[in-house]
Design brief:
295 residues; single chain; mainly alpha
Amino acid sequence: MQALWMVLGSFLFATMAVGIKFASNSFATFELIFYRGLVSVIFMGIVVRASGVPLKTPVPMMHLSRSAIGVLSLASWFYAIAELPLATAMTLNYMSGVWVAAFVVGGALLYGNPSRQGPLLATVAMGFAGVVMALRPTMDQDQLFAGVIGLLSGMGAALAYMQVTALGKVGEPEVRTVFYFSLGTALVGLVGIGFSGLTPWQDVSWQDAAWVVPIGILASLGQWCMTRAYRKGSTLVVATMQYSGIVFACIYSLIVFGDVIAPMGWAGIAVIVTSGILATILRTRALPNTPPEEH
């Protein structure tokens, strides 16, 4: 039953992605990053205060590194959402599970311990085959760059996931980690705005602007649901339920945006989801208490 929190969290993240796609019609990527971070800082600040967790941390550099990589991944994902069909952008970001498996295999090979890595390697190959299937029929030639950026967002999410794992192992509370990530997101967005500038309000559609606050709230609530699911439920079941986000994104993509995805694209999405679930199963057997990935 606790795994249903993960389904709710995935729904909230997919809904946030809808907001990003609408808001990107009026706002640049750095503006969206700033607004998402600012709202999340306020929301998580309230949560941190209510939970009684102090903000002082013994590992500030770990938070800095985690936030830097996480924000780069977030920016890449926001850009991909703006430029690609929602289902495709969401699926590329959820390649993070396959990327983690790739890092595990790479580390084993690097340190001369390749034994029993065959199954994980197979899931990695399967995942990238799915990417080829998903991108070829769903992207125009001028969307190739956005596809690469979307793929890199999944890699960044995987690196951030591993850093969150490290923070959990040193005893950092989840709410503190999420707060500092939100703070880093707001700061990077603000710096980016300093270079790219703000969109004049006369050029902003009110329908797009209406999504600014919900984006940050949906992100924070989604993260809270994920954290609760991982804390209370079976790690393997919860991690598998996370891929329901792609299902929600596909539904939004078809109904809200009228995207057309060729049969080969649907097959590619299915292959990526399957490879991600298999990689999660194999990884969870070795690391049973890993924390959730963040968005």
